[in-house]
Specification:
Helix content is 29%, strand content 30%. The chain has 404 residues and is α/β, with parallel strands linked by helices.
Length: 404
């Protein structure tokens, strides 16, 4: 009998133990410990979108320089020259233009063609108008010699206007120019194929970035190593007053695209040349790049047809986990209005679009209206390429932070 109770006791204990185990195993706490739920899936990184704008030549002839000179105070104010187009420059997240003059100071005298020198106030006024970066390597880089290069860069720095293309030292030349624009790192290089026959200062060959294919490629790769997501090559080259790019421009642009550039923004011809999208293979993948071989004149006193106008090119850029890409290309024609106000000839850069009525303090005459219409017609016919998504600027975009 004692043995029987012992067996029963053992069986009862076993039953109780199993029950406890079952209860514990069924416990939500232990279930979670043994089989935790899968971790939440990480959110897909959001894309970043910006607009980069590129304008043409700031070609400061003396007529333009003195159009807003105040003889009573002896000061120059270029703000009114750019006021009509300023909202359209500021609508972009970052804007670059070609500075085709020097800011070498009053002691050198102010000059137009062929040896340009402009009051340093120009740096302040173009910055206030919405231009963030100026390219300084062009055929007028040495107009005021070595001292002119140094003083120009000093004046740009004093105004807070970024620059690329000429240098005060070897170290400055070798430092890659990369700027972070709302999370997208843009790299810029600037080279010229001419200094109008003026030699580089002896022992200071670093002063001007003279166009050499290998040098440009090395500079592009340097800004890539510096972390640039997208690279813009501002090139001063081509034939003056030729409305179409030549073979040398196209071959060079394609070569630079293969080796890391994404955009070529051209200057020097003083007329607009068509924009092209160029597809190259890079790092085992196809890449769509943009070649704007010549953006034309932004401001000048060249008042004849085709040279009295230019464009601002807008690039819609997107960065995501897949990379950084150009998603769209837009262009806004600009035209230099000349007329009399306050007893003096004035110059104003006007945005041109059928849906726009530019705000200018110079009366718009019937002759002006006719030329504005002509500028729109000739440049839209020259540039528009719907199949390549190269399209006119949207007039209401100046009120928005981006064109998307």
């Amino acid at each position: 009998m004692r043995k029987k109770w012992r067996v029963c006791g053992i069986l009862s204990a076993a039953i109780v133990t199993c029950a406890v185990v079952l209860v514990v195993l069924g416990s939500p706490v232990l279930s979670k410990r043994q089989a935790p739920p899968p971790p939440p899936r990480p959110e897909e990184p959001k894309s970043t979108k910006i607009t980069l704008a590129a304008a043409g030549d700031l070609l400061m002839h003396l007529q333009v320089v003195y159009s807003d000179y105040d003889p009573k105070t002896g000061t120059f104010d270029f703000g009114p020259v750019f006021a009509p187009v300023a909202p359209y420059l500021k609508s972009a997240d970052y804007t670059v233009a070609n500075l085709e003059t020097r800011l070498a100071g009053a002691s050198r005298g102010y000059h137009g063609y062929p040896l340009f020198n402009t009051p340093e106030n120009l740096a302040r006024d173009v910055l206030e108008a919405g231009i963030d970066l100026v390219a300084t390597a062009n055929n007028h880089s040495l107009d005021m010699g070595w001292d002119g290069i140094v003083t120009t860069l000093d004046n740009l720095d004093a105004a807070g206007l970024a620059h690329v293309g000429t240098s005060r030292s070897e170290a400055e030349k070798d430092k890659p120019f990369v700027v972070d624009v709302r999370g997208i790192r843009l790299g810029f290089v600037n080279y010229t194929d001419s200094t109008n026959g003026l030699p580089l200062p002896w022992g200071k060959e670093f002063a001007v970035n003279v166009l050499d294919t290998d040098a440009v490629v090395a500079a592009i790769q340097a800004v890539r190593r510096e972390g640039a997501d997208l690279v813009v090559a501002v090139l001063h080259m081509g034939n003056e007053y030729q409305r179409f790019s030549d073979e040398a421009q196209r071959i060079l642009a394609t070569h630079l695209f293969v080796y890391g550039a994404d955009v070529v923004a051209g200057s020097h011809p003083h007329v607009v040349q068509p924009i092209e999208k160029v597809v190259v293979e890079r790092d085992g993948a196809k890449r769509i790049c943009v070649a704007a071989y010549s953006l034309g004149n932004f401001i000048s006193a060249q008042d004849w047809r085709y040279s009295d106008s230019g464009i601002v090119m807008y690039l819609d850029i997107e960065k995501s986990a897949a990379g950084t890409f150009i998603r769209g290309v837009r262009y806004l024609p600009v035209w230099v209005q000349t007329g009399y106000a306050g007893g003096r000839e004035r110059y104003r850069v006007l945005p041109i679009h059928p849906a726009m009525d530019p705000v200018t303090d110079i009366p718009i005459t019937p002759k002006h209206r006719a030329r504005m219409t002509q500028v729109w017609e000739e440049l839209s016919a020259h540039l528009e390429n719907i199949s390549a998504d190269i399209l006119p600027y949207k007039p209401n975009a100046a009120k928005a932070a981006t064109f998307f």
